[in-house]
Amino acid sequence: MKLIILDHYLEASEWAAKYIRNRIIQFNPGPDKYFTLGLPTGSTPLACYKKLIEYYNNGDLSFKYVKTFNMDEYVGLPRDHPESYHSFMWNNFFKHIDIDPGNTHILDGNAADLQAECDAFEEKIKDAGGIELFVGGIGPDGHIAFNEPGSSLVSRTRVKTLAMDTILANARFFHGDLSKVPTMALTVGVGTVMEAREVMILITGAHKAFALYKAIEEGVSHMWTVSAFQQHPRTIFVCDEDATLELKVKTVKYFKGLMLVHSKLVDPLYSMKEKIEPPKKPYSD
Amino acid sequence: MRGGQDSVRAPVLRFTNCRLLRAGKLLREDLWVREGRILDPEKLFFDEQRLADQQRDCGGCILAPGFIDVQINGGFGVDFSQATEDVGSGVALVAQKILAHGVTSFCPTLVTSPPEVYHKVLPHIPVKRGGPHGAGVLGVHLEGPFISQQKRGAHPEAHLRSFEANAFKDVLATYGCLDNVCILTLAPELDRSHEVIRELTALGIRVSLGHSVADLQMAEKAVQSGATFITHLFNAMLPFHHRDPGIVGLLTSDQVPAGRCVFYGMIADGIHTNPAALRIAHRAHPQGLVLVTDAIPALGLGNGRHTLGQQVVEVDELSAYVAGTTTLCGSIAPMDVCVRNFLEATGCSLESALEAASLHPAQLLGLEECKGTLDFGADADFVLLDDALHVQATYISGELVWQAEVARP
Question: pTM for the full model?
Answer without folding.
Answer: 0.89
